[in-house]
Write a structure and sequence with these properties.
Length: 450
């Protein structure tokens, strides 16, 4: 496989490895004044020899790479998992004055089992000598533990197990007992269940639990997608409330998978892997392959057309400066566009020569994003198919709309209808876009920030 990119496609705002491969974000945790981002990492720009990479940030915007945190061992490669800050040192792996960060991950060998590593300095990790802490001899898919504090006391981990998730409880983060399971149920989509997360949000003054499950690549989903369920957690298991009559995904675009939330933050903040397993191994980015979404704050919104829905908002408004005048030209490859209006509208970015990327609200009232003419596509046969070019989704609100697009060289994130519709898309223009055009019968206003 060639490691030379046609041109520089590295995003400026989205986290990427300097070299090599990344996929699922792992161990998202806030501890001792720092945000920690771990990820599935391979030293070459394709999947293999999977470690946990490690980066830290003071603000979720600027990341400093640290040495790899967890390496493969006799139990297998270090697959996805989570991390918590054991402030009360219930594990006994630290001290009251220096409590540990504890990472639980999947040891992927002949079986998939759950193991633990811990850190006392926030950088170097020690593997627990009693690994694995959750054994498995039967299930072929048993992975991606997400640990959280149980509101009724102790700790809970939710694990993906093929076509369902399982729950285990512990008082000390070391010894675990199964407490329940969920699925397959609740209008689930097809694909192997992976990378679950479970957390409470509020809606109208009441607590609602949100279960995220990433569904492995299958044609019905147009690749790998992340579904969410709403319901209740009783301290032992999750019950779906049947809010949706069909699968609902956290992202309406093609390129947001395996997203999980941070432990230890006041708001519920999510990051995902900005790619799709259908074509992720062939991206034309050269010595690196893979990037994360920008961090997003999650909330629940009661919508007039869809009932309760998960809403996503960019975690920071500090990425860009003040608005600049628009004269039909674009000043670079990293910018934010905000378009407000009513009715149908098509916003097109182009460079001439036939390449163009567009988004907007179509005549049927659906929000859409279209990369079918956006640039390079032949690097992967599926990426080049029409069904992976344009995608749209119905609105959950009526009347005026606002679209916010963050464009970052080879990835864009579109937020619509108070974040209830979000599209994350990869695209590879052969040259930077230089022009912006607005068409349609909408009365619209455009704001540009760089």
């Amino acid at each position: 496989m060639s490691t030379k990119a046609p041109r520089d496609f590295r995003p400026a705002l989205h986290y990427t490895p300097k070299k090599g491969w990344i996929n699922d974000p792992n161990g998202l945790v806030y501890a001792r004044g720092k945000y920690h981002l771990f990820a599935q990492y391979g030293p070459e720009p394709h999947w293999g020899d999977i470690h946990w990479s490690h980066a830290e940030s003071p603000d979720l915007l600027h990341w400093r790479d640290l040495p790899n945190a967890i390496a493969p061992d006799g139990l297998g490669m270090a697959f996805s998992g989570s991390a918590v800050y054991d402030e009360e040192n219930v594990s006994g792996l630290g001290t009251p004055d220096n409590p540990p960060i504890i990472a639980m991950y999947t040891s992927h060998g002949e079986q998939e089992q759950q193991s633990i590593a811990y850190s006392l300095d926030g950088e170097s990790f020690i593997k627990y000598p009693g690994n694995p802490v959750i054994h498995n001899t039967k299930k072929p898919d048993f992975r991606d533990p997400k640990v959280f504090k149980n509101p009724k006391g102790g700790w809970t981990v939710v694990l993906a197990a093929g076509d369902h998730v399982e729950f285990y409880g512990s008082e000390d983060l070391l010894h675990w007992q199964k407490t329940g399971s969920f699925g397959p149920d609740g209008n689930y989509s097809k694909g192997v269940w992976e990378c679950p997360d479970l957390f409470p949000l509020t809606l109208g003054g009441r607590e609602v639990w949100v279960l995220l499950v990433s569904m492995g690549a299958c044609p019905e989903n147009l690749g790998s997608r992340t579904q969410y369920f709403l319901g209740n957690f009783d301290g032992e298991t999750f019950t779906c409330d049947g809010s949706f009559n069909k699968p609902e995904f956290i992202d309406s675009g093609f390129d947001n998978y395996a997203g999980v939330t941070f432990f230890g933050t006041q708001e519920r903040v999510l990051m995902g892997w900005a790619a799709n397993w259908v074509y992720a191994g062939d991206l034309p980015t050269g010595e690196f392959c893979g990037q994360m979404t920008l961090p997003r704050t999650l909330s629940l919104v009661d919508t007039p057309l869809g009932g309760p829905r998960l809403s996503c908002a960019p975690v920071s408004d500090k990425l860009f400066g003040a608005p600049v005048p628009i004269d039909g030209s674009l000043p670079g490859e990293v910018f934010k566009l905000t378009v407000s209006g009513e009715g149908a509208a098509d916003i097109t970015l182009s460079k001439g020569g036939g390449e163009a990327f567009s988004f907007g609200v179509d005549s049927s009232g659906e929000v859409y994003i279209d990369r079918s003419r956006a640039g390079l596509r032949s690097f992967n046969a599926d990426f080049a198919k029409p069904e992976y070019g344009r995608i749209s989704a119905p609105r959950f609100f009526t009347g005026p709309w606002t679209l916010e697009l963050t464009f970052d060289r080879s990835i864009c994130e579109l937020f619509a209808d108070r974040g209830t519709r979000v599209f994350t898309q990869l695209l590879y223009p052969s040259e930077p876009y230089r022009h912006i055009d607005l068409a349609g019968n909408a009365k619209a206003e455009i704001s540009l920030m760089i």
